[in-house]
Amino acid sequence: MASLGALTGGGDRAFLTTLVPGFAFGPRHSVFSVDIGVGVSLLSRNQFGQQDMGGPFHVVFTTGLRIPVYGAIGLGYRFHHMSDANLYGPGVKGVDTHMLEMTYTFR
């Protein structure tokens, strides 16, 4: 999985990109599928108001649930955790997000 987007907090906004290899579970033509992955992210800034994310690189854990809607198009929910994993010193700094997503499955 890969993503491009923005992270906003404390009146500040940063460019965010992630690359997360993962595994999907469920039969090919099932009513739903579940995926899980661990990867990395890159932030264009690390200070959001009072919140300091430590630095530009972070570890990402994500898991999602997806249901098909029409053909290759689906809808889903994703939990996404991003943290510095103590890369920038003691005291883990991170953010959890809950996302609704629209997906396309290449067949």
Summarize the structure.
With 107 residues, this protein is an all-beta fold.
In words, what does this structure look like?
The structure is a single chain. This protein is 0% helix and 66% strand. It has no helices and nine strands. β1 (2-9) and β2 (12-19) form a beta hairpin. The two termini are 16 Å apart.
Q: Secondary-structure element order, as H and E? A: EEEEEEEEE
Structural class: mainly beta
| Shape label | elongated
Estimate the strand proportion. Answer: over 45%
The whole-angstrom Rg is 15 Å
Low-confidence stretches: none
Largest sheet: 7 strands, antiparallel
Q: How far is it from the N-terminal to the C-terminal residue, by CA?
A: 16 Å
Oligomer, anyone? single chain
Q: Which helices and strands, and how do they pair?
A:
Elements: E1 2-9, E2 12-19, E3 22-25, E4 33-43, E5 47-48, E6 51-52, E7 57-70, E8 73-83, E9 94-104
Antiparallel strand pairs: 1-2, 2-4, 3-4, 4-7, 5-6, 7-8, 8-9
Any descriptors?
mainly beta, 107 residues
